[in-house]
Amino acid sequence: MLPSRRLSWLGSAASLLAVVTCYGTMAVVALLSVIGIGVDLDDSVFVKIVTGLLVVALLGMAYSFRLHRHPGPFLLSLAAAGVLGWVFYGSYSQALEIIGFAALVAASLWDFRSKRRARSATGKF
Q1: Tell me, what DSSP letter sits at residue 90?
Q2: Within 10 Å of residue 5's Cβ, how many Cβ atoms?
Q3: Residue ranges of the domains in the chain?
Q4: CA distance 98 to 89
Q5: Does residue 76 contact residue 110 with C-beta atoms inside 8 Å?
Q6: Which of 3, 18, 52, 58 is most enclosed, with most CB atoms within 10 A?
Q7: Are the C-beta atoms of residues 105 and 17 closer than 8 Å to each other?
Q8: How far apart are CA 57 and CA 111, in angstroms?
């Protein structure tokens, strides 16, 4: 497997992992509370983890852009990261948080599709 192919999944995977980290943790905590187990989580820890994953996602999307030369997925992920940064460190809004994560997932799917098209057109990576 070519090195470029090995790293081309990084942006999409980190984006999806950021979503799963945020909403998956909330789902597990809600499920635990339903069965009577109370868990107190420090939100700042999750904000830092998701922020780190956003940085990795942006780096991966930038790398992927270099492979398929379609700027859309990178620009959408950049906008999503900006919205989520505002939500985490500026003024919290649940609606903006959902929009930011939805845009991040859309950018990941778009990136995957762009890579697949470029791969079929060129036969590379």
Answers
A1: T
A2: 13
A3: 10-119
A4: 15
A5: yes
A6: 18
A7: no
A8: 11
